[in-house]
Amino acid sequence: MTEGSLSEAVHRLMHAYKHLLREGVQRQKIELPVTQIRVLKAICRNDQINAQSIAKRMQRDKAQVTRALNDLIRDGLIVKGDNPLDRRSQLLNPTSEGRAVMTKLDSVEEWAVQQLTAKLESDELAFFLRISQTMADSAKQVGNTEKGES
């Protein structure tokens, strides 16, 4: 496979997955923008998380994350709490409503993966996972090398 066709295959796969996620979100009647979904997922999947760490993880400016947090708080999906390790920041936690939305989002992701992998045998899927992890690790190493990390 040439480099151009690999690029095209990755591009098509990424768009197919995003399309399935959008379709699943619509089917589940989740009315949150992508940024709010990503922020909610970060909060639900990470204990002891604050706005600064979400901004860093998402590679977004803190103001954009703060707007999403304020919307999620307003909608009753998350709450702020004291951070015993740093009084200048607050820890973020999902409410029961936020966890319910996260359950729907998890089912959307499972459905999307089922759609993508329906025609694959288990050994083909395992091979794909190994190859894609190796590729992702290689890309991460390039980023770390350019930042002066090893």
From TrEMBL:
Keywords: DNA-binding, Transcription, Transcription regulation. Residues 3-137 form the HTH marR-type domain. The keyword Secreted does not apply. The keyword Amino-acid biosynthesis does not apply. PROSITE patterns: HTH_MARR_1, HTH_MARR_2. It comes from the Bacteria. It holds the Pfam family MarR_2. PANTHER family: TRANSCRIPTIONAL REGULATOR, MARR, TRANSCRIPTIONAL REPRESSOR OF EMRAB OPERON. This is MarR family transcriptional regulator. The lineage of its organism: Bacteria, Pseudomonadati, Pseudomonadota, Gammaproteobacteria, Pseudomonadales.
